[in-house]
Structures are given as structure tokens and as C-alpha cells.
């Protein structure tokens, strides 16, 4: 699609007329965004509407960006006019610096080449073949809970471990237990560093030996060493490890074969960057969805009962398969509702490369732009009583009535998450295994969160486990 310049139509508002919070006289909204960016965006939408201009930082060093919240505007940015909005936003540049130019951050020819390379890993046929790996890991967790001394667990670390083990088994053909501690220790350090640098008006050079730089560098070095070790182990095991559908083509096998076609070869750094992105993005997002779905069901026992009755009716005592995805509609609705309230990617960033009219306002070329599932998913004009947990919102007939971009936890358009079907399959099957084995009672009613690269729980999501007699036997 060619990039075209925008010519204001009669009645459209100039860029300077876009409303937004005044903030503090010197720092604008900087402190509010640092303290709680999600509440700041939510308050801005309710006070100023669906296109908002925010300023952060002192005069002369002030960052200006625009937030778009209406589904129609989100569709323009992510889909219908996606060519006007690129991943040149400071956040993506910081992610690029920290994690490399993998599929999440690459653009143009690099992105197309990488996507062609990994797309075969995410076809529906191949993803459906991963079901047994998902249920094996979930059953292992259920068994571990049965032998634990404590009947109370924190779902956040538990689901992180489950999702990491699952994605590592499927994508790399490896047992991830040795990687768990490294990722849990290093990923939050890098995450916080990236987000902090993305939104400060003046960036200290990464090479300077400040405490923050040194901590981030040590964490990055450890993560890179982990990825190099995974690549080395997988290459050593090539020919003996096979993927879930028996064709021997996990992610590393596909990357290694890249030199056999017109896309050219990947060097060792490029392979590491893809591994790092898939390790982090491939497990953090699904772990978030699993943890909050279980916690919300623990807080709403009547919904938990309805979901479990469906699981018992459909599965009885057999292990769920990919074919059961369509046979568990209410469990899927509960998962989607949890992803509405706690989207794993709460804010999505872009930079405008051409002036574009959105919602009657002119977004200028060069402007940093964000769309926020966290806010759009809570718009009372789209969702009645938006803070209430109600899986019935996602009944097929109600979904059909809503705008396509009223709910977009996987993004949308040409850069939509390549692993969407993978994540849904993994989540539904893992939830089915765990909910058939246990009744959950919430210990923590609310779970505080913050926006990092992905949504971060900043407090525990504890539940009390009650094993179900005879479940899963």
C-alpha cells in the first residue's frame, strides 16, 4: 500500500487541538505515566475522548505522543492504514537493543523473510499437533500440586513455569527446567530497563557503567548465554529429537534450514535473537492469560462451576485433544473474557510516517502513537459494566455484534501475533486439565498490575487448591 500524505478535510481538527491532560507545569504527565501508565491512559480516555495528546518531560526535552482508543481508530493504525504506522516507536527501539531484531521488532524485508521462515511452525495442522505436549506439561503440574506440602499456590510463577516448559518443549524440543530460573531472574530486569528507557526524555548511553546499565547488561549477557546453550544443545540432539507431529521440524530446525532456500541463511546472532524472542514472547503472554483466567474463576465460583461442568461433560476422564477446542465453548469464553480484562499486551506502540486523520483529528507524520487494549477493552460504550467478569460477553451472537477491534489482545492487521492459534490451543487445553483436577478458591481478591513490555503482575495471585476426588483418573 503506498504511503500518502493526509490533506485535512473541512471540519477536521488540527493536531494542536487534540485534547489531553494538562499534567504538571514542568513535567506534564511524566510522573503519572511512570507511576501507573494504565490508569493514566484510562483516565485520559474518560476525560478527553478517544484521541488524546499527552506530553511528558520538561520543556525542551518533552515527549509528545498520541493515544487512540476507539475501535475504528485502532483498526486504522493496526490494519487498514498500517503502512502509515511503523514499529519505529522508542519502545520498540529499546526492545530491539535488548533482545535483537527478531520477529517482534523487525520490519520490511527482514520481517517478511523471518515471517516466511517461521510461518510453517504455526499452521493450524502443525499447532494442533502440539496438543499432547501441552496436556503432558499441564498434567505434570497437576501431579506436582498433589504432592506439595502447601495447598496454596501463587498462579503467576506457576503459570510462568508451565508456559515456559510447554513452549520450550514445542518450539525447541528441549526440557526447559534449567532455563526457568535464568528467565525468571533476568527477564524482569531487562523488561523494566527497556520500559524505563523508552519513556525518559534523555537517555544515558548504554555503555556508561551506571548501576542500571550494569544490571541490565549482566541480565542480557546471561539470557544470551542461555539462548546460545539452547541452540547448541538442540544442534547436538538434531536427528534424535522430533517435534510433536513427528516431522522433526521444531523452530531451531527451521532456522537451521533457512540457508537452503531463497531467503538466505541466518548467522548465529540472528538465530539467537529469534530464540530469545520466542522464549520470552512465546511464554509470557500465554502465562498471563492462564494465571488471570484461573484467578478470575477462583474469584467467581459460579462461573468456575459452569466451566468445570462443561469440561466434565465433554472430556469425562480422557485427555483433551486439539479437536476439543471447539467442544469447550464456555471455557473459551471465560479465557477471552480474562484476556479482555487482563490483555497480555496492554499497550501497543507505533510511529506515524504519514499524517493521518483519525476520529476527526490529524495525527502528524513523525508522531508517536499508542493503542491500548487495556483501555478499549474497558470502554463502557462497548462493554456494559466493563469491570465485571462475564464470559457470556463472548457468546458467538454477541461477538458478531461488536466491532472487530473492540477486543484485540493479539493486535491485528499485518503484524498480528503469529502465535494466536497456538496460544488459544495451549491455554484452553491447559485450563481444561487443571480445572478438571482442582477446585480453586481465591486467597487474593485483587492482583495489582503494571505495563511493561507485557502486562506484569506486581503482587501475588494466590489460590487455595482442593483436589477433586477421582478427577482425571
TrEMBL record:
Cited SUPFAM superfamilies:
Cytochrome P450 (SSF48264)
| Recorded coiled-coil stretches | none
Q: Which stretches of sequence are listed as region Disordered?
A: 1-21
Which terms are listed as keywords in the entry?
Answer: Heme, Iron, Metal-binding, Monooxygenase, Oxidoreductase
Q: Does the keyword Transcription apply?
A: no
Task: Please report which protein family the annotation says this sequence is part of.
Answer: Belongs to the cytochrome P450 family.
| Name used for this protein in its record | Cytochrome P450
Species in which this protein is naturally found: Streptomyces nigrescens
Amino acid at each position: 500500500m503506498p504511503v500518502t500524505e493526509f490533506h485535512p478535510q473541512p471540519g477536521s481538527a488540527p493536531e494542536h487541538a487534540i485534547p489531553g491532560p494538562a499534567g504538571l507545569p514542568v513535567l506534564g504527565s511524566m510522573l503519572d505515566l511512570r507511576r501507573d501508565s494504565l490508569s493514566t491512559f484510562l483516565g485520559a480516555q474518560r476525560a478527553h475522548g478517544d484521541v488524546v495528546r499527552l506530553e511528558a518531560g520538561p520543556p525542551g526535552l518533552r515527549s509528545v505522543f498520541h493515544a487512540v482508543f476507539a475501535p475504528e481508530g485502532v483498526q486504522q493504525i493496526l490494519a487498514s492504514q498500517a503502512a502509515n504506522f511503523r514499529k519505529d516507536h522508542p519502545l520498540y527501539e529499546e526492545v530491539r537493543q535488548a533482545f535483537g531484531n527478531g520477529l517482534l521488532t523487525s520490519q520490511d524485508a527482514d520481517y517478511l523473510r523471518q515471517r516466511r521462515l517461521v510461518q510453517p511452525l504455526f499452521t493450524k495442522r502443525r499447532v494442533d499437533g502440539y496438543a499432547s505436549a501441552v496436556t503432558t506439561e499441564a498434567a505434570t503440574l497437576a501431579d506436582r500440586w498433589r504432592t506439595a506440602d502447601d495447598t496454596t499456590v501463587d498462579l503467576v510463577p506457576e503459570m510462568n513455569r508451565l508456559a515456559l516448559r510447554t513452549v520450550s518443549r514445542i518450539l525447541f524440543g528441549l526440557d526447559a527446567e534449567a532455563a526457568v530460573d535464568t528467565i525468571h531472574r533476568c527477564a524482569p530486569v531487562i523488561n523494566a530497563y527497556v520500559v524505563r528507557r523508552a519513556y525518559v526524555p534523555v537517555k544515558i548511553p548504554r555503555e556508561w557503567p551506571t548501576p542500571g546499565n550494569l544490571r541490565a547488561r549482566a541480565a542480557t549477557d546471561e539470557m544470551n548465554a542461555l539462548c546460545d546453550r539452547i541452540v547448541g544443545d538442540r544442534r547436538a540432539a538434531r536427528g534424535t529429537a522430533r517435534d510433536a507431529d513427528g516431522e522433526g521440524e521444531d523452530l531451531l530446525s527451521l532456522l537451521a534450514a533457512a540457508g537452503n532456500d531463497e531467503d538466505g541463511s541466518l548467522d548465529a546472532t540472528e538465530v539467537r535473537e529469534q530464540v530469545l524472542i520466542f522464549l520470552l514472547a512465546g511464554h509470557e503472554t500465554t502465562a498471563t492469560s492462564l494465571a488471570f483466567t484461573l484467578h478470575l474463576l477462583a474469584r467467581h465460583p459460579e462461573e468456575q462451576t459452569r466451566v468445570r461442568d462443561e469440561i466434565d461433560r465433554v472430556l469425562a476422564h480422557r485427555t483433551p485433544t486439539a479437536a476439543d477446542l471447539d467442544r469447550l465453548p464456555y471455557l473459551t469464553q471465560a479465557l477471552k473474557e480474562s484476556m479482555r480484562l487482563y490483555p497480555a499486551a496492554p499497550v501497543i506502540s507505533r510511529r506515524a510516517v504519514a499524517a493521518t486523520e483519525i476520529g476527526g483529528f490529524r495525527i502528524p507524520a513523525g508522531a508517536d502513537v499508542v493503542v491500548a487494549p487495556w483501555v478499549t477493552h474497558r470502554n463502557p460504550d462497548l462493554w456494559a459494566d466493563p469491570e465485571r467478569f462475564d464470559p457470556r460477553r463472548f457468546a458467538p451472537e454477541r461477538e458478531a455484534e461488536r466491532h472487530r477491534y473492540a477486543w484485540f489482545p493479539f493486535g491485528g492487521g499485518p503484524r498480528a501475533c503469529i502465535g494466536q492459534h497456538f496460544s488459544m490451543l495451549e491455554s484452553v487445553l491447559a485450563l481444561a486439565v487443571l480445572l478438571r483436577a482442582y477446585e480453586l478458591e481465591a486467597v487474593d481478591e485483587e492482583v495489582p498490575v503494571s505495563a511493561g513490555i507485557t502486562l506484569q503482575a506486581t503482587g501475588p495471585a494466590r489460590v487455595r487448591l482442593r483436589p477433586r476426588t477421582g478427577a482425571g483418573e
